[in-house]
Design a protein that fits this description.
GO terms for molecular function: DNA binding; DNA-binding transcription factor activity. InterPro entries: GntR_C (IPR011711), TF_FadR/GntR_C (IPR008920), Tscrpt_reg_HTH_GntR (IPR000524), WH-like_DNA-bd_sf (IPR036388), WH_DNA-bd_sf (IPR036390). This protein is mostly helical. It has two domains: 3-65, Winged helix-like DNA-binding domain superfamily/Winged helix DNA-binding domain (Arc Repressor Mutant, subunit A, Orthogonal Bundle); 70-216, Up-down Bundle (Four Helix Bundle (Hemerythrin (Met), subunit A)), CATH 1.20.120. Helices cover 72% and strands 3% of the residues. The protein has nine helices and three strands, in the order αβααββαααααα. It has helices at 3-17, 28-35, 39-51, 70-94, 98-114, 122-143, 146-155, 174-196, 199-237; strands spanning 25-26, 55-57, 63-65. It is globular and about 50 Å long. 36% of the residues are buried.
Length: 240
């Protein structure tokens, strides 16, 4: 895992947890110092976050954190599920070539290896994220429908709508590893359905797969709420 990937994961998680508040300006140097990184990976991560709809450019330069609601995120995830379901059905109808089957199998093996450790490390989490992005991209590329591909690309610009954006925020927690294992079992079933020519099943599995992201959203919101309730107590105890 390179530094840019680490910084991207940390910034994405920080934005969702509220460490970086909506409207807050993200200056490269300050973010770099906060994360213990250089400005180059921070700059690249901010560009990626802008593409994901989590930050936007500021009139005076730099970036600010975008405002978003939980319902907006949930709606975008639901839309992605139906779009990817259609893509999986189209791939099945076209037929999975040997080359595509090998690429799928490589992704599945990579995911198995990434989830082998217990607890997971940040490197494991990043490895799984890269695999997850690749697997979803393979399905979209192979569907052959350019309008569908553009629709997914547009939807991915909404906050936390992309394939890996709502993976568990804390990969080292046992409950998060369990959810990632469950999601990867769905990957195996989805690939098997496409190989077998089961288009309707592949479509249904792809739609169902996004429920993992919805569950992760609910878990992350619950953790964020708990943290917000605890912080005033900590400040009171510490005399803040």
């Amino acid at each position: 895992m390179n530094v840019q990937e680490t910084v991207l994961l940390q910034l994405r998680e920080g934005i969702f947890r509220g460490d970086f508040e909506p409207g807050q300006r993200l200056a490269e140097q300050q973010v770099a110092e906060r994360l213990g990184a250089s400005r180059t990976p921070v700059r690249a991560a901010l560009v990626a976050l802008e593409q994901e709809g989590l930050v936007e450019t500021h009139d005076n330069g730099g970036y600010v954190v975008r405002r978003f609601t939980a319902s907006e995120v949930a709606d975008a995830i639901a839309v992605r599920g139906h779009l990817e379901g259609m893509a999986a059905r189209l791939v099945t109808e076209h037929g999975v070539s040997r080359q595509l089957a090998r690429a799928f199998d490589d992704c599945l093996a990579e995911g198995d290896a990434a989830l082998a450790n217990n607890p997971l490390t940040m490197a494991d989490y990043a490895r799984y994220t890269a695999m997850n992005d690749r697997l979803h991209a393979l399905i979209l590329e192979a569907c052959g429908n350019r309008a569908l591909q553009r629709a997914v690309a547009l939807n991915d610009k909404l906050p936390f709508a992309s394939a890996s954006a709502m993976l568990p925020m804390q990969g080292s927690l046992a409950v998060d590893r369990d959810w990632m294992l469950y999601a990867h079992r769905q990957h195996h079933m989805l690939v098997e359905a496409m190989k077998r020519g089961e288009g309707a099943r592949a479509q249904a599995l792809a739609v169902e797969h996004t429920e993992v992201a919805q569950t992760n959203l609910r878990l992350a919101l619950a953790r964020r709420s708990e943290a917000e309730q605890v912080m005033p107590v900590i400040r009171l105890v510490m005399g803040g």
